[in-house]
Design brief:
The complex is a heterodimer of chains A (551) and B (109).
Chain A lengths: L10 H22 L5 H6 L6 H12 L2 H14 L5 H4 L3 H17 L5 H8 L2 H34 L3 H50 L1 H11 L24 H19 L1 H8 L4 H17 L1 H14 L15 H9 L4 H37 L5 H28 L1 H27 L5 H23 L8 H24 L7 H4 L26 H14 L6
Helix pairs in contact in A: 1-9, 1-16, 3-9, 3-12, 3-13, 4-14, 6-11, 6-13, 6-22, 7-8, 8-9, 8-16, 8-17, 8-18, 8-19, 9-10, 9-14, 9-16, 9-17, 11-18, 11-20, 12-16, 13-22, 14-15, 16-17, 17-18, 18-19, 18-20, 19-20
Chain B lengths: L3 H11 L9 H22 L2 H6 L5 H22 L13 H5 L11
The chains are: A mainly alpha (551), B mainly alpha (109).
Chain lengths: 551, 109
């Protein structure tokens, strides 16, 4: 790409960008004052209000890969992209808040792997902690590389400048300010990202003559009428997404999405930092509302791009679907909002990467270093370990980013692979949480078997042995097979051992008591609008209602 | 269910200083007020080229006003409802009690 996508930024735009960086670093330094213990560093002292953790929860997912990717999906698949939000996210977030959070927060675990240590045994814990740590570092590298690619295309910055600058800023504010700094910046990023995306959407809609004009033009485009319906053509796979409704509901809506949202520690960590049980449960529920509306500023720009940018959808070059948002920025935004949009894009890269890095340093320090390597040191010692882990994690991420620059396809594969890891983990959780007779050994063997099955399915698909039609179909099937295998192995292995006594499982398994959802209520938590059931129910109802106009 | 590692962490939480965490609403409010003013003024001065690019919408002015309003909302919210006292935990730990509950970080104010 030489200059085709180049944005015409002026001093004003760069000032807005610089102002943002200064603020982000300032948040890091201000958060540093509040760190006295390791809980402050890794879990924000479990002190944050629900609206902060809720927005951080959604922001941690709102990385630029997500925004750029979803706009690209919008251009390629049309309205069906909303499945990633309304079926593929909201139900799982509601389930996390209402059903699972009492066990996570109530058991006082400091991470997702730690739940596995208490519920099952140390091998299960170690397996999950190590896979998670490795995955987070690699994904942070993917984020960095993607950032560098976009900045190269938009601003003409060399790859290595962007990689090192992006890494240095994230490294600085997390090493200094810990999770509070990451979370506060995520909340800030959430608003900056929206401030960048909303003008693109508004001007885009003005250009095509509003929603009606947009839909008319989509009908005339290659995407056609099918691009305007979410469910109408899903009784077969002859639709833009190439997915049957069963695959959408069970593959995407259940196995993949529940796996991601309920067991991914980079997300769950935001809820664990909430100040009490009520706030922890409301974290994913509050996050569900922005998540419901985000397609307005990703899918609509994607559709605008497909009808206004001639030739969008090329296999390579400047007109690939992934450039939908950058192309609209170039064509529609004058200096000023252009600077805000570029800032929002960089903010979203940093949000994604910061979530990975802060998840990594916590799991590394608590779950690997403190549990298996150096137990019983002073609290200050573990804060130092956390800071060193952050630096090491970011350095490895930079390394991954440079390797990725040489093998960009491999990075796509790695990311797809890790998305499949979540399915067996979720299956292990759900069986363990609801079936008290599942033994510790069953936990380990089912998690291992499910993970191996997921990886094997993926590798066989790559090798051409398993003939799936698309990557998406592979991930549905891979996740489904892994899920089923976990359940079978869990049941079979549990026959050959003695389950843990009920007394050890109190607070970890459903039906044994020990979870106190009211023990730490604060004034005001009893208000009707803070009821988790109500918040979750309304979010679910909206996720169905929103489909009606685009059936 | 009692676990040694978790117990220690809970002890640490009680002497946690996170109660003094500054209020993020001030940061969001401040940044967006500044952004709103800068972009809004630019919007007032935008020439025909900028207007034409934005399909005739004075987008900088509108975006600036929107951001200014958002920033002010956060500042007003913080002013009307200052940070609530974080629970200092059930222990009578002097350290936690000494933290200026609900006052945010005095040195930042």
């Amino acid at each position: 790409m030489d200059g085709g996508l180049r944005l015409d930024l002026n001093l004003l735009d760069y000032s807005l960008l610089a102002l943002y960086f200064v603020t982000v670093l300032g948040v890091g330094f201000a958060a540093r004052r509040a760190i006295r213990t390791s809980v402050d560093f890794f879990l924000s002292g479990r002190s944050l209000p629900a609206w902060v953790t809720g927005l951080a929860f959604v922001s941690a997912n709102l990385g630029a890969l997500e925004i750029i990717g979803m706009a690209a999906n919008g251009a390629q698949y049309g309205i069906m992209t909303t499945h990633y939000y309304w079926v593929g996210a909201v139900p799982a977030m509601v389930f996390l808040g209402i059903v699972m959070m009492p066990f996570y927060y109530g058991s006082k675990v400091r991470s997702v792997p730690e739940y596995l240590r208490l519920r099952f045994n140390r091998p299960t814990h170690l397996l999950n902690a190590v896979t998670f740590a490795v995955a987070q570092v690699l994904i942070a590298g993917v984020n960095l590389y993607a950032l560098a690619l976009v900045l190269d295309a938009l601003l003409g910055w060399p790859l290595w400048t962007s990689i090192i600058l992006g890494a240095a800023i994230v490294l600085a504010y997390i090493t200094i300010g810990g999770l509070s700094s990451a979370i506060y910046n995520e909340v800030l990023q959430f608003f900056v990202i929206l401030a960048g995306l909303i003008p693109i959407t508004v001007i885009g809609l003005v250009k095509v003559g509003g929603i009606d004009g947009l839909f008319d033009k989509v009908r005339e485009s290659d995407l056609g009428e099918a691009g305007l319906h979410a469910w109408a053509d899903t009784t077969s796979s002859a639709n833009p997404l190439g997915a049957h409704w069963l695959g959408i509901v069970f593959g995407l809506g259940f196995v993949l999405s529940f796996g991601y949202w309920t067991t991914n520690f980079a997300e769950v960590q935001r809820a664990l930092s909430a100040r009490n049980m009520s706030a922890a449960r409301r974290t994913p529920l509050i996050a569900a509302y922005p998540k419901l509306l985000i397609p307005l500023v990703t899918v609509i720009p994607g559709l605008v791009a497909v009808v206004t940018v001639q030739g969008l959808g090329a296999d390579e070059g400047d007109l690939v679907y992934n450039n939908a948002i950058p192309l609209l920025m170039r064509d529609l935004l004058p200096n000023g909002v252009l600077g805000i949009a570029v800032t929002g894009l960089m903010a979203s890269f940093m949000a994604g990467m910061a979530a990975n890095v802060s998840g990594f340093n916590t799991v590394f320090t608590y779950d690997i270093w403190q549990t298996y390597v150096r137990k019983g040191r002073s609290d200050d010692y573990y804060i130092r370990v956390g800071r060193v882990a952050t630096i090491a994690g970011v350095l490895v991420g930079i390394g991954t980013a440079f390797i990725a620059a040489g093998f960009s396809n491999i990075m796509n594969y790695i990311q797809a692979l890790f998305s499949v890891f979540n399915a067996p983990l979720f299956a292990t959780f759900i069986v363990g949480m609801f079936w008290k007779r599942m033994t510790a050994a069953a936990g380990f063997w089912s998690l291992l078997a499910g993970t191996v099955a997921a990886v094997a399915t993926y590798l066989l698909y790559l090798a051409g042995v398993l003939p799936f039609d698309s990557d998406l179909e592979e991930s549905f099937w891979g996740a489904g097979i892994a899920f089923a295998l976990v359940v079978v192995v869990a049941v079979v292995v549990s026959q050959f051992g003695r389950p843990k006594p009920d007394s050890e499982l109190r607070g970890l398994v459903n039906g044994l008591g020990g979870v106190d959802v009211k023990g730490d209520v604060l004034a005001g938590d009893a208000a009707w609008y803070r009821s988790p059931l109500l918040l979750g129910g309304v979010a679910l109802a909206l996720s169905i209602l929103f489909y009606i106009p685009v059936w | 269910m009692s676990d040694e590692l978790l117990h220690e962490t809970e002890e640490e939480r009680r002497r946690s200083a996170a109660a003094r965490l500054f209020d993020v609403r001030r940061v969001i409010g401040g940044l967006f007020v500044v952004y709103g003013l800068i972009v809004g003024v630019v919007g007032l001065l935008d020439g025909s080229a900028a207007l034409e690019k934005a399909q005739g919408v004075r987008i900088n002015l509108w975006a600036g006003l929107g951001m200014l309003l958002l920033g002010l909302l956060f500042l007003v919210w913080q002013w009307l409802a200052p940070a609530a006292a974080p629970s200092a935990g059930p222990s009578g730990d002097n350290d936690a009690a000494a933290v200026e509950n609900g006052e945010g970080d005095a040195s930042v104010r």
